[in-house]
Give the backbone structure.
Amino acid sequence: MNLLFFTVCTARVDLGFLIDATSRVGRNIRQIAQFVREAVRRFTISSRAARIGVVTYASRSKRIIGFAAAYNRQRSYNAIRGIRALGGRARLGRALTYTRFNLFRGKPRCGRRRVLIVLTSGQWIDRVKRPAEALKGAGVEIFTIGIGNIRRTSLLRVTTDTKHVFVVGYTQLLSIVRTLKDRICYSPGKFSFKRNEIALV
């Protein structure tokens, strides 16, 4: 068996995931959960390093885990296993506002970055630009991952800039994990894990 080694990021970051859980995603929610888990594996999880937050959205939004509860890797993994499709249509603008008040509330901590990764299948039915700007104004750096046939210009209404946008298919999600981690992490650590040390979702 070939083993894949990777560098683990030790940066201090509040890393949030805002996940499309609409009917449009449906059975592919498992692939999204696997992607989130693989992304989380690339970070040191602790109160002094990376803290993980997860919100899912459709017509309504649901916080799966907040930063205060995600001080260890296993707790984060347990939360990721709880990701389920909510059904309904995408209200991404409402979800961005929900995320600001329920995940990134309060002021940024000194020396700690705020990063939000938005996964969307597109076709949201509300306005997103103002809620996204409010998040950025709260010190949140936004990466947007469009899954499927989505125009990059639509994603730019949400994201920080063009370097924060990815467009992939469900089967390609894992291929962008390393690039995403490298763009988020200013201070990669020296430790590596074997890919098969922790079972996939």
Residues 187-201 have pLDDT under 50 and may be disordered. The first strand starts at residue 5 and ends at 9. The chain has six helices and eight strands. The two ends are 19 Å apart (CA to CA).
